[in-house]
Amino acid sequence: MGWSASIKCPNGLNVRKISLIVKNITDEYLFSVEEDISRVFVTDKFKQRVEDANLLGFDFSTEISIS
After folding, report:
1. Residue 51 three-state SS
2. Cα dist from 52 to 21, 25, 48, 59, whole Å
């Protein structure tokens, strides 16, 4: 779907950088990726609807790059 590869460093640190491919995002509001089905991603359209409705409890502080 668009995950970059994990990078193993000599000290054992595992760094993952997510980059989603926009043409593979087919859902309008919510989606997940096969590589990590426990994470749910939302679209800008979803974020805008939450903000327009003044809903609380959502954290949109982490943005994922899209290519």
Report:
1. helix
2. 27, 23, 6, 15
pTM of the complete model? 0.65
Q: Summarize the confidence of residues 22-42 as an average pLDDT.
A: 85
Q: Between the CA of residue 19 and those of 15, 33, 37, 41, what are the distances in Å?
A: 13, 11, 15, 12
Question: Cα 11 vs. chain centroid, distance in angstroms?
Answer: 27
Number of Cβ atoms within 10 Å of the Cβ of 47: 14
Distances (CA, A) of 40 to 5, 7, 12, 32: 19, 22, 27, 5
User: Helix, strand or coil for residue 48?
Assistant: helix
Both structure tokens of 25: 């995002």
Contact 15, 7 (CB under 8 A): yes
